Amino acid sequence: MKTPGETGFAFPEWAYKPESSPGSRQIQLWHFILELLRKEEYHDVIAWQGDYGEFVIKDPDEVARLWGARKCKPQMNYDKLSRALRYYYNKRILHKTKGKRFTYKFNFNKLVLVNYPFIDMGSAGVGVPQSAPPVPTGAVSHFRFPPSTPSEVLSPSSEELRSPGSFSSMARRLARGSVSDCSDGTSANSEIDEGSLGVGTAEERVPERGFRSAVPPRLTHEALYRMYGNHVGHRGHRAHPEPLSPFASAGSGLLAPPPLSPALPVTAGTHLPYTPSPTLSPMPGSIFSFSAEDMQRYLQAHTQSVYNYHLSPRALFHYPNVVVPQPQRLEKPLQSTAERPSVLTHSYPLAPADDAHHTPFKFKLQPPPLGRKQQREAQGHQGSLGSSSSSALGSSLSFGSDLSSGIVSNSSSSGSLNSTGLPKIKVEPISDIESEEEVEVTDISDDEGDERDEEFFSAHRRDHHHHHHHHHIFGRQSNGISAPPQYDDSEEDVFKAPAPPPLFGAPSSSSFRGTMPTVKSEPDTPPASSGHGHTPLPSPSQCIPLKLRFKRRWDQEQHTEEAEDKKVRGDKKNGESAGIEREESESSAPHKLSAELHRAAAQLSLENKDC
DNA sequence: CCCGGAAAAT
DNA sequence: ATTTTCCGGG
């Protein structure tokens, strides 16, 4: 209700403000790290290095300082920060690169950025048949939608369930569905998708569905490889980007370099020419209609988003179908009406989907990490478990069962989106400064193995597949017909997916940039950067993050936000650092405004805001 | 340095 | 639920 309101766009509230849990939603450390990583200004203190998601904290004290500033914890120091980082190990968000000081690695395998909330596969198919070019196809079939009772599904474990917050089904879907898919399959898919697109259909996305659902049809590793081989091959495939040493260390240590290549073939070239136009305007008509091209773009968008963080691409997930929501179109807020299928019905996803579930659930599940310790113990006791077995613990699915997701969408990635015309997104209006960006990320599970690294093999799991699969609940709208309790399972099991093949992309940070123009906005404003001098310099921001854009939209439509923003910001009072330029006051000029907002947002982001 | 347990704080 | 503190142990 509240929010967006009327405009239509609806985004899930969660987007705006997730649950309420009190302490919860502050910026998370990993988000912060990612933010720092994406800004060149901070390259002296922290930067991507190595392959994949590896990064090195070059100036631990500074990073700690920045973090402390962000959290208003002046006493922060690297020791503490690192402890926090260590907590991510079990969550599988991060890994430590052994042997290298201050070097950690994001698990993008599990971490997926979801920028576009709506994506998910399901939607497209149905709704937009025509559009769905190749991809979606499966659409019909696969569609998964959010089960009405997702919660259970998600967290089988029970525990928590996430909150009742308010997440829309979408979110969920995203989270799990996509995400999950992503995790493993993701990578694969992505490429595949591209490939297919490029090539032409390929088998269509069939696989996709398969992948997700349960079937493992062709997505086996082999298959994947093959695919990659083809496509990738031509691309130049991977590449070893930099010599860095991820592996090196690996050699020494544990790591296992993934078979896949850390490097990933990304290549800029690959992506298409898509250029994000800053202007973007999705607005009105745009919309969805996408064709193969669009698809590609879409994919790219994802890619970009990843890039924005300078992450390695692996993370992308691709959804076979994309959905595009069209904000404007919807007039009703999802939330309330969600149900209104009208739109949905044929169209998309948007979210609401089902009312039934408007249940919120939170998205983050925490996985059950067993600690290595436990693992160890287990091993010790039992001896070696099966390798795969490790999952033993996992219980049935072991492997990947959990996932957590987060979501966010915002900023950076955004750029990409719009271009496409996909309107997606969640915007967060304001409010949080801190939230600044949130991207959604989800992490998916992976499983054990992790320690070493990436996933690689893990294919089997799906074998059993279970049958049914899931969700397709699309139809359910109000009737709820289908709703057998089946879906749930799938997710877990399923989502594990096969192993991901290498994706693309070299991680090298700089390289990406070239690719996308966007990027970079910088904040500056170092709060008080104390002694160091690296205060970042501001640079002109060109791109506009989605968020802003949306915002912009909002403003136009409703400017309430502005007020809020300001409000929020207003508190700042001290000119201190940030003062800078943000005056968002104006309401009118959209462009300008947006730019400003953009900027402001950017700045806000990292540093701080005073406490 | 890095690792995590534990307790407290948010 | 996550992060901050504190801390003993490699």
What does this structure look like?
This protein has 611 residues and is mainly α. It contains 21 helices and 7 strands. The protein has helices spanning 13-16, 29-38, 60-71, 78-91, 121-127, 139-142, 150-154, 169-199, 206-213, 221-235, 246-252, 292-308, 334-337, 341-346, 372-382, 411-420, 487-495, 509-515, 546-557, 560-570, 590-607; strands at 46-48, 54-57, 94-96, 103-106, 111-114, 403-405, 440-444. The chain has a 4-stranded antiparallel sheet with strand order 1-2-4-3. The radius of gyration is 22 Å and the shape is globular. The chain starts with 12 loop residues before the first helix and ends with a helix. The structure holds a DNA duplex (10 and 10 nucleotides). Residues 150-166, 384-396 have a biased composition (Low complexity). Residues 461-474 have a biased composition (Basic residues).
Brief synopsis:
This protein is 36% helix and 4% strand. It has 611 residues and is mainly α. It is globular.
Features:
611 residues; mainly alpha; 4-stranded antiparallel beta sheet; 3-stranded antiparallel beta sheet; 21 helices; globular; DNA-binding
Average pLDDT score: 41
Report strand order across the widest sheet: 1-2-4-3
Question: What percentage of the residues does DSSP assign to strands (E)?
Answer: under 5%
Number of strands: 7
The dominant shape is globular
Rg from C-alpha positions? 22 Å
Structural class, please?
Answer: mainly alpha
In percent, how helical is the residue content? 25-40%
Order of helices and strands: HHEEHHEEEHHHHHHHHHHHEHEHHHHH
Low-confidence stretches: 1-24, 114-592, 594-600
Q: How large is the count of helical segments? A: 21
Kindly report how far apart the N and C termini lie. Answer: 30 Å
Biggest sheet: strands, sense, closure? Answer: 4 strands, antiparallel
